[in-house]
Structures are given as structure tokens and as C-alpha cells.
């Protein structure tokens, strides 16, 4: 019975060492970069550009992260296929709406209207795919053990990726950018890519709209009630299935908006485009505290900035060659760190124990 | 007499029609059309497309009790009509929009040719509707037949289609027979209609006989056997199985053995992931990381190229591959110990991606070669005999040995304390901790053993290919391995083998599948989870949990003992 008396917390120690190594590495990298000019020399405006592009990238992550966070808040499930809702909207709208409009010249004459139509199209497709996935792959398994819907979500993700590859082909499709959004503008002495500026403005509007929807409308109230307790919500006369479907639809619509702006910024769409943004947006959602809408927004912006600043500052400071190649790894490392050290995220509620 | 609901029939018909439209539009029908099942009569693409109305017709009637024949056939016809509708829509669309391939590259003239039977849009559409309706009615009619006719017919059809589909494989096995003769029997692709008829008749007649008499006779003879005879029979069977497994590469030839080798490597990985996911219930999406580490360690230690460090022989390097992967398993295991379920999945996915990005980056390029990878990796040798493993056949035995070792280790661990601890952990972490299971050690052991198998698979993989590149170690490998253990049956050792043969072997044999592999995996995972969560070859425990609620009390006695034994 005295087999394991010497049970000291060596996992705790290992984590502590890990934490210390990371912090030391970050400090060393920063100091070497800032005071000893290791790697490529950057001037102040370079740093400003990094931050601006990080913020605009981050606002895209924020829009996608909303879908993750809302679904997680309501079903406690990671909707692995969310990145595919994003991709399906972008590809379909590009091929069937944006490209024909661009060839006919309509997109350049009426860029705002044209983009608006494209976004609506993307939203409809993404919502359709989301509802279909929810109905077939998630709803019947809502009472199953928690890993089961995650596994079907992974299945759904790959199914849609390769479905759309079959449908539209595996090639990269160029996204037509209207003239008004090409090139750069200078505001407050900072150069912005016009598309990136547009991204930030629209994301902000969407975030406000979503926040209003959830906090001020009856539907939002239903969503919050179902997130709190499905059974009690059902007793209060709320249609749980419908509310869950609405949540998926809202998330997919946000992802579709992000997808069109993704196309505007990167000027291309393809069938695999949903995967990495999906994972990163999930990181953003966790970073901000999964289940929290402002948290997702904040987490997205934070991730965007870290991703833009991390490689040129810390990694170059540490003397890592080809630091920009490790941009994606930065996001993943950040995800791992957050989940280890602060699983509830920046604005997270106390769900580390109960839900995570 | 019960009634069929018209609404349901139309609904199912339309859903099936959309599915038919989808498989056409994503190019599956055209790609699969290249494989003939019966020469000149039926291709895999046609089977895919025209199998839909038959199945739907059957499903509509099934489970509705006694139905008048006329009504069943009518509903079959209606369903067929609605299945054809979306396809007619597609044909019309190609007429209205000649440049449709700019948007949907797979809506090709070939596809329209298949859909319209090469008869032009108007006549073709009419034929298509009629064919779909008739096939729907055929499906419905099939269900009307008495049981004793249904079964033999079904097995006759299944055998014919199966042999037609795998005719390439069979031809490969008949290598010693001159090719011309084989081709005359089999036909240029697929099987000849004559052979198809012969197979169909034989299979049907045999199955009818089996259903009527054979099974009983077999059972009688079985029960009449003495204990001694039975053990002898069992022994003969086992010896035959061993001989078959050992002789398999020489029967199958180089190409098919190559396929077996790939399957074997996936079985090895599946067994490793099965310990982590199946036994301990920790969903790991970054399993490829350990495979990659095993492969890279093997590469670095045995390569005679620029990057080779010491040029060790394979056999000495292999334990290092396993060891390195095990250590990596422990290192990656520690930070995720306190995470549960879904977070764990995403973090391990992140680890897998970090390893891949690092392997391809400039950072480690001087050590592991970046995108150029490592070449000239050493092959296994037998020192005294001066024998080098080169052919797939040689690797087959190596992989077979690895798999057997992994199966042995897995089954040992499963039936002893570690396995029971893992399963307790899988069922409920808190309760497991409460009965005194050391969570940290238990989880780390699972990660370490799982990683060790991955490292072993990686080492063999590297040596087999003699060169490795970072892009071989992508997320899709992890997903592949996860899919195969899910389809085979989570936590089941034979399930891993079945899953790997099915999910890795089949697409290698039927090259047409390659392009739609992940699409089919995705659909299969969802379907499995919905319809048969225990997998194709479930582990007994899992099956009991998922299906037999009432007789839980029966097992409760055993469970108490097990719990007492855990601590």
C-alpha cells in the first residue's frame, strides 16, 4: 500500500522548466533583435507595417473564430469543418459570381455592389453547407460521447475539401480584385493595402452587428439560453434544434465574409484554403477564451499581430534562418502555449475544468 | 397490407438524385468509368451511377411490411424518375451554358455521353429517365422476392461484381499462366460477359444450395466431430494460415507485395495509434510526428549521403528510431497531460504540423536536408550471408515481423494492468483517478508505446524507400491512420488489420480511387459513426458497451473484480 509515497509533481516541474525556457528564449530573441540588430535591419515604419498587416490578418481570424466560439459555446464541440464552410463560400462565389462579374466589367463599375453580391452568394453557400453538415453529421450524435462529433467533424472537413476539389478542380483560382481596392493608401503616414483597410472596416462592422444580434435580439437570447442549458431552454419553449442551426448559420455567414476578404487580400482561392485559417482561427478562439464573442475578436487580433511580429523579432533575434517560413509554426506554438498555461484564454470564463 | 408514403418516396428519390448529380459533377463517374467490371457491359462508373436507383428502390420498400407488388413497383418507378431529374437538369445546363467546364471542370462531354448513353441530349435524357425508373422498379422488385431467392441472387451479383472489379489482381496472381490465355478468359479489362455469366450462375447455385442444405450439413458434420478431430482441424487451419501468410508475397508478385508493404506499414502505425486512441481514449491527430521522427532518425543514422552521421547498419539504427520516437512521445505527452478530449486533438494536430514545418524549414536544413530530404538511406542486410533487402518481398517479412511484434505487445498490454488502466481512463478520467490510477504514468505510457510503434514504422518506411522528404509526413497520414482504426473498430486489433486492408489496400489496388480517397474517407468516417460506431471488426468490450445495455448486470461481477485488480 505504500507503493507510491514519493509522488512529487514532476510534471509540474517539467512544465515550469518548459515555461522558463520559452520566456528566456523570447527575451533573448527580443533583446538581441532590438539592441544588437541581429538579422535583417528594420526601421520603425517596417514595424508599423508588420503591425498593420497583422491587425488586418487578425481581423480575418477574428471573423472565422466567431463561428468556432459560438458553436463551442453552444455544443461544447470543436467544429473542425468550419474552415470548409469558409472555403466553400469563397470558391463558389468566386467561380459563379465574382469571375463572371469581373469579365463583364461590372465589378469595376460597381465595386461595392459587386462585392456585396459576391458576399451574399458566399454566405448562402456557406450557410447551406453548414446546415447540411450539422443536420447529417452532428445532430444525430449530439448525445454521443464527446469525441464522436469531433471525429465526424474531421470526416466532414475532409469530405468537403475533396468534394469541392472534385467540383471545381484542384487548381488555384484567381480572385478578381476591383480596381478601387487595388494598390495602397496612406493614412496617418502609414501605408495600407486598400484591401487590408477594407478588411478591418468590414470586420469591425460585422463584429458589432453580431454582438448586437446575440445581446439585443430574441434569437440572440435563445442562443445564449441554449448555451447555458439545453434542457432548461427546451422547457422554456425554445426550439433547441433550430437555435443550434441558427448558430451554425451565423458562424458560417461570418466565415463567408472573411473568405471573400481573404480572396481580396491574397487574390486567390483554392480547395485547401480553409484548413490553415481554420486551425488559426481556432487558436484565436482559444486564445481569447473559447465561448466568448469579444474574446474571439480579441484573440484573432492578438494572433494576427503575434504572427506578424514573432518571426521578424524573436525568431530572427535568435538567429533562426528563414524565419518567415515558420509563421504557421508560430501560431501552432502559441496555441500549445495557451492551452498549457492559460486554457481559459484572455477573456475566458472558468471553463478549464468543466468544459475544456 | 401497409401503404408506402408517396412523399417519402419522392423525398428519397430527390436526395438520391442529388447524390447522383454530385458524384457525376465531381468527376467520380467519369474516373470510375475507366475501370471495366464486365467488358463492354458495365464499368465501375456505371455501377456507381446506376446502382443508386436500385439501392433506393430496395430501401423504399424495405421495412414497410407487406406491400402489394404493384404499389412497390410503382414507387420504384417514381423514385427512379426523381433520381433522374437532377441529372436531366445537368444535361440541360450543359446545353444552355456551353462553357460550363470553365467553372465545373469535371462536367465533361464524356460525362454527358455516359448520362445520355451517347444518344444526344433529347433522346438520351428520355432513355436516362426510363433506365432510372426501370432500375428503381428492379430494386423494389428485388425486395418482393422471397428470402430464399433474394440471398442467392444477391451473392451471385456480389461475386460477379467483386471478381470483375479485382480482375487485375487475379490476373496478377495467375502470372505463371501465359498472359494471352489469361486475357482470353478474363477479357481485355474486367471480365468477359461469358465469364460473368458463369461466375454468376456458379455463385448463385452454390449459395442457393448452401442456404437450402449445405449449411445444415456442414453444421451436422461439425457437431459430429470428436474433440480430438476438432483440435486437429483447428491446427491444420492455423498451419495453413501461417503458410499462406508466409507464401503470400511469392503468390502475389512484386506489385501486389508492394501494396501489402504499404498496408503493413499502416497496420503498424494503426496499432500504435490504436493504443493511444483506442485503448486510452486520447485523440491524437499528430501521430505522423512519431512516424517522421522514426524515419528521420533512421535516415540520419544509416545514410551514406552527405547528411549521414555515422552510417550505422539498419539493425542497429532501428532501435534508435524507436527510442527517439518514444522519447518524443514522452516529451510531447507531458505538456498535454492536463488537457482533455478535443483540446488534446487540436494540440497534437499542432505538434504534427510543427514537426512538418520544421522538417521543411531552413532552420534544420543543415541537419536534415530541408525540402531536399535525406537520400541514400541504408537497407537492412544480413551480415554473414551478404544479403541485402531490396525487393518488396524482403521488406514484406520485415514488416510482417514488425506487425506481429506490435500485435503481441498490444494484446499483452491490453489484457494486463496497463490496458485496464487505459480503458478505465478512457471511460472516465475522474473515476479512474479516484480508484487510484496514476493518470500521469498511465497517459505517458500510452503515448510512449504508441509513439514507439510509429517510430518503428517510420524506420522501416525510410529504409524501404531509401530516401525521405518532408512532404511525405503530412497531416493526411495522421488522418489516414485515424480513419483506418475508426473504420476497423476503435480498440480492436483485428479491426486495425481489416481497416488498413480496406482503407489503404483498396485504393492502392483500384487506382481510380486514389483521387477520391479522402472524400471517401470523410464520408466513411461519418457513416461509420452514425451507423456502426463499433467498426467493421469491433472489440468485444466496445460492442458490448455500444449495443447490449440490458445484459450489463451480467458483466457487472467481472467489472468489479477488474476494478479491484486495477490498483
Class by SSE composition of chain A: mainly alpha
Q: Determine the oligomeric state from the structure.
A: heterodimer
Q: Classify the beta-strand content of chain B into a percent band.
A: under 5%
- Enumerate the spans of chain B where pLDDT stays under 50 for 5 or more consecutive residues: 550-567
So, CATH architecture of chain A? Answer: Orthogonal Bundle
The overall pLDDT average of chain A reads 82
Largest sheet of chain A: 2 strands, antiparallel
Number of helices in the DSSP assignment of chain B: 24
Count of alpha and pi helical runs of chain A: 13
Q: How far is the first residue's CA from the last residue's CA of chain A? A: 33 Å
When the domains of chain A are counted, the total is 1
Unreliable sequence segments of chain A? 350-356
Number of strands of chain A: 4
Strand order of the largest sheet of chain A: 1-4
CATH topology assignment of chain A: ABC transporter involved in vitamin B12 uptake, BtuC
Main sheet strand line-up of chain B: 1-2
Helix content of chain A: over 70%
Please tell me about this protein's structure.
The complex is a heterodimer of chains A (356) and B (567). In chain A, the strands form two sheets. In chain A, strands 1-4 form a two-stranded antiparallel ribbon. Chain A has helices at 10-36, 44-75, 82-103, 106-109, 111-138, 147-168, 194-216, 218-228, 230-235, 240-266, 275-288, 293-317, 327-341, and strands spanning 173-174, 184-187, 190-193, 268-269. In chain A, a hairpin with a 2-residue loop joins strand 2 and strand 3 (190-193). Chain A is mostly helical and 356 residues long. In chain A, 72% of the residues lie in helices and 3% in strands. Chain A is built from 13 helices and four strands. In chain A, helix 7 (194-216) crosses helix 8 and helix 11 (275-288) packs across helix 12. Chain A is globular and about 65 Å long. With 567 residues, chain B is mainly alpha-helical. Chain B folds into three domains: 1-144, no CATH class; 146-224, no CATH class; 252-509, no CATH class. Chain B is 74% helix and 2% strand. Chain B contains 24 helices and four strands. In chain B, the strands form two sheets. In chain B, strands 1-2 form a two-stranded antiparallel sheet. A two-stranded antiparallel sheet of chain B has the order 3-4. In chain B, a hairpin with a 4-residue loop joins strand 3 (381-382) and strand 4. In chain B, helix 1 (6-25) runs antiparallel to helix 3.
Amino acid at each position: 500500500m505504500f507503493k507510491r509515497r514519493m509522488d512529487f509533481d514532476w510534471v509540474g516541474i517539467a512544465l515550469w522548466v518548459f515555461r522558463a525556457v520559452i520566456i528566456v528564449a523570447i527575451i533573448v530573441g527580443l533583446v538581441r533583435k532590438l539592441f544588437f540588430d541581429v538579422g535583417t535591419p528594420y526601421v520603425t515604419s517596417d514595424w508599423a507595417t508588420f503591425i498593420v498587416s497583422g491587425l488586418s490578418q487578425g481581423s480575418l481570424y477574428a471573423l472565422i473564430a466567431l463561428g468556432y466560439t459560438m458553436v463551442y459555446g453552444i455544443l461544447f464541440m470543436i467544429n473542425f469543418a468550419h474552415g470548409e464552410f469558409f472555403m466553400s463560400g469563397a470558391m463558389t462565389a468566386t467561380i459563379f459570381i465574382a469571375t463572371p462579374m469581373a469579365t463583364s466589367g461590372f465589378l469595376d463599375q460597381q465595386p461595392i455592389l459587386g462585392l456585396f453580391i459576391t458576399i451574399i452568394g458566399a454566405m448562402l453557400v456557406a450557410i447551406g453547407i453548414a446546415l447540411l453538415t450539422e443536420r447529417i453529421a452532428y445532430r444525430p450524435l449530439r448525445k454521443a460521447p464527446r469525441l464522436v462529433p469531433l471525429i465526424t467533424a474531421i470526416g466532414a472537413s475532409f469530405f468537403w475539401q475533396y468534394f469541392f476539389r472534385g467540383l471545381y478542380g484542384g487548381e488555384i483560382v484567381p480572385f478578381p480584385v476591383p480596381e478601387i481596392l487595388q494598390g495602397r493608401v496612406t493614412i496617418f503616414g502609414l501605408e495600407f493595402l486598400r484591401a487590408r483597410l477594407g478588411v478591418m472596416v468590414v470586420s469591425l462592422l460585422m463584429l458589432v452587428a453580431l454582438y448586437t444580434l446575440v445581446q439585443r435580439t430574441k434569437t440572440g437570447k435563445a442562443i445564449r439560453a441554449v448555451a447555458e442549458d439545453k434542457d432548461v431552454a427546451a422547457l422554456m419553449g425554445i426550439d433547441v434544434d433550430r437555435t443550434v442551426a441558427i448558430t451554425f448559420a451565423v458562424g458560417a455567414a461570418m466565415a463567408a465574409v472573411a473568405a471573400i476578404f481573404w480572396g481580396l487580400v491574397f487574390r486567390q482561392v483554392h480547395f485547401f484554403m480553409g484548413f490553415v485559417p481554420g486551425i488559426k482561427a481556432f487558436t484565436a478562439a482559444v486564445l481569447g477564451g473559447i465561448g466568448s464573442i469579444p474574446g474571439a475578436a480579441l484573440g484573432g487580433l492578438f494572433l494576427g499581430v503575434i504572427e506578424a511580429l514573432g518571426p521578424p523579432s524573436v525568431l530572427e533575434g535568435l538567429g533562426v534562418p528563414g524565419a518567415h517560413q515558420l509563421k504557421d509554426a508560430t501560431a501552432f506554438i502559441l496555441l500549445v502555449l495557451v492551452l498549457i498555461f492559460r486554457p481559459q484564454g484572455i477573456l475566458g470564463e472558468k471553463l478549464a475544468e468543466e468544459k475544456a | 397490407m401497409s401503404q408506402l408514403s408517396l412523399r417519402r418516396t419522392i423525398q428519397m428519390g430527390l436526395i438520391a438524385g442529388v447524390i447522383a448529380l454530385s458524384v457525376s459533377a465531381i468527376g467520380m463517374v467519369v474516373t470510375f468509368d475507366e475501370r471495366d467490371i464486365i467488358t463492354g457491359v458495365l464499368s465501375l462508373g456505371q455501377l456507381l451511377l446506376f446502382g443508386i436507383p436500385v439501392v433506393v428502390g430496395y430501401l423504399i420498400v424495405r421495412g414497410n411490411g407487406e406491400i402489394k407488388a404493384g404499389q412497390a413497383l410503382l414507387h420504384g418507378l417514381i423514385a427512379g424518375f426523381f433520381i433522374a431529374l437532377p441529372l436531366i437538369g445537368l444535361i440541360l445546363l450543359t446545353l444552355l451554358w456551353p462553357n460550363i467546364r470553365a467553372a465545373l471542370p469535371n462536367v465533361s462531354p464524356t460525362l454527358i455521353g455516359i448520362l445520355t448513353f451517347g444518344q444526344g441530349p433529347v433522346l438520351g435524357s428520355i432513355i436516362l429517365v426510363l433506365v432510372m425508373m426501370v432500375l428503381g422498379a428492379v430494386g423494389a422488385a428485388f425486395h418482393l422476392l422471397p428470402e430464399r431467392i433474394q440471398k442467392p441472387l444477391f451473392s451471385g451479383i456480389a461475386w460477379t461484381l467483386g471478381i470483375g472489379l479485382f480482375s487485375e489482381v487475379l490476373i496478377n496472381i495467375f502470372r505463371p499462366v501465359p498472359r494471352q490465355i489469361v486475357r482470353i478468359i478474363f477479357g481485355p479489362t474486367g471480365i468477359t460477359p461469358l465469364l460473368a455469366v458463369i461466375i454468376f450462375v456458379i455463385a448463385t447455385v452454390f449459395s442457393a444450395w448452401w442456404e437450402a442444405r449445405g449449411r445444415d450439413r456442414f453444421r451436422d458434420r461439425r457437431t459430429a466431430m470428436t474433440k480430438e478431430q476438432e483440435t486437429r482441424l483447428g491446427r491444420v487451419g492455423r498451419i495453413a494460415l501461417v503458410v499462406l501468410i508466409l507464401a503470400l508475397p511469392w503468390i502475389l508478385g512484386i506489385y501486389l507485395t508492394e501494396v501489402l508493404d504499404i498496408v503493413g506499414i499502416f497496420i503498424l502505425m494503426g496499432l500504435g495509434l490504436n493504443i493511444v486512441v483506442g485503448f486510452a481514449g486520447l485523440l491524437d491527430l499528430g501521430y505522423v510526428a512519431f512516424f517522421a521522427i522514426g524515419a528521420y532518425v533512421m535516415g540520419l543514422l544509416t545514410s551514406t549521403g552527405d547528411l549521414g552521421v555515422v552510417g550505422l547498419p539498419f539493425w542497429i539504427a532501428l532501435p534508435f528510431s524507436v527510442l527517439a520516437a518514444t522519447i518524443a512521445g514522452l516529451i510531447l505527452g507531458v505538456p498535454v497531460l492536463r488537457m482533455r478530449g478535443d483540446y488534446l486533438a487540436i494540440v497534437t494536430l499542432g505538434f504534427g504540423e510543427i514537426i512538418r514545418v520544421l522538417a521543411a524549414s531552413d532552420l534544420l536544413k543543415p541537419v536534415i536536408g530541408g525540402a531536399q530530404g535525406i537520400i541514400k538511406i541504408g537497407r537492412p542486410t544480413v551480415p554473414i550471408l551478404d544479403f541485402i533487402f531490396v525487393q518488396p518481398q524482403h521488406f514484406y517479412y520485415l514488416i510482417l515481423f514488425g506487425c506481429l511484434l506490435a500485435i503481441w505487445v498490444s494484446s499483452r498490454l491490453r489484457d494486463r494492468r496497463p490496458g485496464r488502466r487505459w480503458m478505465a481512463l478512457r471511460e472516465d478520467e475522474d473515476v479512474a483517478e479516484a480508484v487510484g490510477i496514476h493518470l500521469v504514468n498511465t497517459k505517458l505510457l500510452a503515448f510512449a508505446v504508441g509513439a514507439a510503434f510509429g517510430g518503428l514504422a517510420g524506420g522501416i518506411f525510410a529504409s524501404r524507400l531509401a530516401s525521405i522528404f518532408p512532404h511525405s509526413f503530412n497531416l493526411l497520414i495522421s488522418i489516414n491512420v485515424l480513419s483506418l482504426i475508426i473504420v476497423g473498430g476503435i480498440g480492436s486489433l483485428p479491426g486495425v488489420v481489416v481497416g488498413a486492408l480496406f482503407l489503404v489496400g483498396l485504393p492502392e489496388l483500384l487506382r481510380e480511387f486514389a483521387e477520391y480517397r479522402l472524400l471517401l474517407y470523410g464520408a466513411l468516417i461519418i457513416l461509420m459513426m452514425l451507423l456502426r460506431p463499433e467498426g467493421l471488426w469491433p472489440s468485444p468490450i466496445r460492442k458490448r458497451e455500444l449495443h447490449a445495455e440490458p445484459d450489463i448486470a451480467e458483466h457487472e461481477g467481472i467489472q468489479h473484480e477488474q476494478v479491484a485488480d486495477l490498483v
